[in-house]
Inverse folding.
């Protein structure tokens, strides 16, 4: 599932590519992936200019001219692919993972007045595109904890968050969107490895040093991944269909059975609250 670095990559790319463009038409092939009847959804988006594209937690927020916002959640397998008119006439091929657009899993298409397009692909169909008004937008922002790369998220703030649930497992807190926004399975496991703590550790047993290492690990790893365009371990791709470059830098996620990068041991995988959890029993305590 795309997490903060992947959604941030897409957001930055879309902000460069579609900001200022005007929506000419919308095609909705899977109506359950939008929140309104198709007619109303179309009526409120067609003719509207894109003011900006931003991110909150794992949500992509497209600010349209007027009071409406498009709120996009990619969930497990959502992709957003952008194509210019000349890409299409030049028969530019997207990487094999994406194939020709629109594809079998393209469920929503935004056509812009300059002939370019934004495709929403989603194999599992859990993702959504919601059209909401500005007053609902404020509520959406309040559902999440602080952005881990923002100034609000300093070490005292992290300690305060951890102190709320001293008996929970650390991974559970890291992934709880109401506590900290945008961290999922990949970056929770990687941050725990960085801090040399097991994802199953009970929060109140963490030493000050471990909490500090975890805090800096979270920020360092998220930034490093954004720098590489995110982690394409599953179906995540950038807006041109290419893979993010962070997979070679993962230490434990998706590496079960492989030799640990920090010791001669092997990376383990267990299920924790239904999620695959990766760690090294020797490097992490
Ligand atoms: Zn190890």
């Amino acid at each position: 599932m795309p997490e903060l670095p992947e959604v941030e990559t897409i957001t930055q790319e879309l902000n460069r590519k579609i900001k200022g463009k005007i929506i000419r038409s919308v095609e909705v092939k899977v109506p359950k992936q939008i929140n309104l009847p198709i007619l109303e959804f179309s009526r409120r988006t067609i003719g509207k200019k894109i003011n900006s594209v931003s991110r909150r937690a794992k949500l992509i927020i497209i600010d349209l001219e007027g009071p409406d916002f498009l709120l996009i959640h990619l969930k497990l397998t959502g992709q957003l692919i952008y194509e210019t008119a000349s890409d299409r006439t030049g028969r530019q091929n997207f990487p094999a993972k994406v194939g020709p657009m629109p594809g079998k899993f393209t469920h929503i298409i935004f056509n812009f007045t300059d002939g370019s397009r934004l495709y929403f692909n989603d194999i599992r169909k859990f993702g959504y595109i919601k059209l909401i008004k500005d007053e609902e937008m404020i509520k959406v922002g309040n559902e999440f904890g602080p952005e881990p790369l923002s100034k609000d998220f300093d070490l005292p703030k992290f300690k305060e968050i951890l102190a709320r649930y001293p008996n929970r497992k650390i991974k559970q807190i890291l992934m709880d969107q109401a506590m900290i926004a945008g961290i999922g399975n990949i970056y929770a496991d990687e941050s725990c490895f960085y801090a040399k703590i097991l994802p199953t550790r009970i929060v109140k047993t963490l030493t000050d040093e471990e909490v500090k290492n975890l805090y800096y690990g979270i920020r360092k790893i998220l930034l490093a991944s954004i720098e590489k365009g995110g982690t394409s371990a599953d179906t995540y791709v950038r807006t041109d269909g290419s893979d993010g470059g962070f997979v070679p830098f993962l230490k434990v996620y998706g590496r079960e059975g492989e030799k640990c990068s920090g010791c001669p041991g092997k990376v383990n995988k267990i299920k924790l609250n239904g999620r695959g959890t990766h760690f090294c029993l020797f490097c992490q305590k």
